[in-house]
Amino acid sequence: MVKHKGPPGFHPAMFAVAALSQFGASLAVSAPNACDLLSSADVTAAVGGAVTGGKISQVDPTSGTASCMYMSAGLHIGVTVNQYPSAADARKQVANQLQDSRSGDGAGQKTSVEAGVGDAAFSSTMTEGMEMTVGVAAHGPVTVMIAITGKGAAAIAHDRFHALLAKAVSK
Known about the structure:
The protein is an alpha+beta fold.
């Protein structure tokens, strides 16, 4: 029996690749700087410990997806941002991701709509296999994904993660 370890199609070993390609259907519209969305203090407040990183935004030249990585006591925090041609395209991407995430709900995974975050948003927490909390939000033509992986990722208070996602998508 294979245990579900994340959203459908997600392989934990491919976290970095998934973060870069999460929104690859963007038609290569340039993405904002992912490291400008959150300060180290913002991420520290959410995860409850000091963070490093958050200085270099890497852009996939094919998709235009930008990502920024932080680390904190065994946690990996990835922020991925993409700019779509329209707000409708961004909302559609979030809706598709929400549907995919909900299909994995059950033992070890819970997906929730994040009311009041951007134009559309959800989060999902996985406790089986690799612990992970992921949030995806759209605001106008921009989508933001925050993924926190590692031991303790599922224990991050939901209100702190919600606030982090809301701050990132508001920029």
